[in-house]
TrEMBL record:
GO terms for molecular function: dioxygenase activity. Residues 96-193 form the Fe2OG dioxygenase domain. This is 2OG-Fe(II) oxygenase. PROSITE patterns: FE2OG_OXY (PS51471). InterPro entries: AlkB-like, AlkB-like_sf, ALKBH3, Oxoglu/Fe-dep_dioxygenase_dom. GO terms for biological process: DNA alkylation repair. It holds the Pfam family 2OG-FeII_Oxy_2.
Amino acid sequence: MSRLNKECLPPGFEYLPACLSFEKSLALYAHLASTLVWQQPDITLFGRTTPIPRLQCFVADKSVSYGYSGTQLENTPWPPVLSAMRTRLMRQFGQDFNALLVNWYRDGQDSMGWHSDDEAELGACPTIFSLSLGATRHFKIRHKQSQEILTLPLPTGSGLLMTGRSQQDYQHALPKQARVTQGRINLTFRTVG
Ligand SMILES: O=C(O)CCC(=O)C(=O)O
Ligand SMILES: [Fe+2]
């Protein structure tokens, strides 16, 4: 496993430090943790059905229909703070974001397994913007062919832009980190076709 230079991420991954200030990012964490309606749906992987090891909320336009690993996500309407953020990001990235998957990792025991965001509804080369709030967690990126793994710590307020072949050529994951006791919320803005 190699340590990652943030200036030298694989093609299609761009790290954006301090998209939100430390104070604003933690205030948004607290606001979302207490106001969103959180769900813990079951997923089916390799024939085994278990609840996801984190909480989740899928914010999306009414017309959007999206799911993964055997679950259909239930749409929540855009709360004002996230709607305003989406408008800013759409201008910044020239992207018609119509959905936002929010994941709450309550502590280091919560996680997300290896995957690519390569569902057909996202298109061949999706643009996904990810914003991290709360505890710093290690985001892992693994090349599908070489299996080389890079580790990118994502502190509160930091952004990660995934474009191009990032989903075709790589998987990513957020492994458990036993020593992390604080929570983290991650927002991924997406365009579902
Ligand atoms: O929590 C993260 O940083 C990753 C989230 C993710 O990969 C996803 O929502 O598809
Ligand atoms: Fe993902």
